[in-house]
Amino acid sequence: MTLSNDPQLDGIERVLAVFAHPDDIDFGAAGTVARWTAAGVEVTYCVVTDGEAGGLDDEPDREAVAQLRRQEQTQAAAVVGVTRLEFLGYPDCAVEPTLALRRDITRVIRTHRPHRLITMSPERQWVRIGRSHPDHLATGEAAMRAVFPDARTKFAHRELAEAGLAPWAVPQVWLMVGRDPNTHVDITDTLDAKLAALSCHRSQHPEQSELHRMVRDMMAANAVECALPEGRFAETFQRIDTA
């Protein structure tokens, strides 16, 4: 049972976040994750790629970049109370919603058995093209296919059942940057934790003051759209019930 009286956490003991690159979760949901872990919810991160194609353009050793980005994401996760991370190691800028990726995400779902899954939106947004990185879209699509039908279907990816991983039905999915957001979380009290988590990704965001200003402005705009009082900050999601 969760330690919080937050109605958004009723029946939520375990959450799994599936995202494409190190730092994706921190932009989209770190404030929310910090609230949940503080309330006693167990959150696990599943990172599809190591983000080795991004940042540090003067560094030819991309394997070193991959290792650095894993370290940065691990540090960022710790800031918001997450200590369980799974890195799938798919190549950056080459993610597709393949059967192999669906199987790997299904394995993680059946292992951790989450009551809620956070992932990327599989729908392209034309307003801000950066939100619709092909890896984001592919990760979101693969995660949704893993949620339904793969993870809950006994004879999907039979090798998983043979390894002792029983089917698991994820009751709900929250999409980051969903096309039709219908749920918000007031992160005013955890905004500093979100910014601190983002600051761990120095290989990608060396200009910390500009990063913090941009994120504050975005979270404040979200709060206005959600009709929260002035001075509040919010993260928004598209909630999908999958029962």
Automatic annotation (TrEMBL):
This is LmbE family protein. GO terms for biological process: glycoside metabolic process. One of its GO terms (molecular function) is hydrolase activity, acting on carbon-nitrogen (but not peptide) bonds, in linear amides. Signal peptide: none annotated. SUPFAM superfamilies: LmbE-like. Pfam families: PIG-L (PF02585). InterPro entries: GlcNAc_PI_deacetylase-related, LmbE-like_dom_sf.
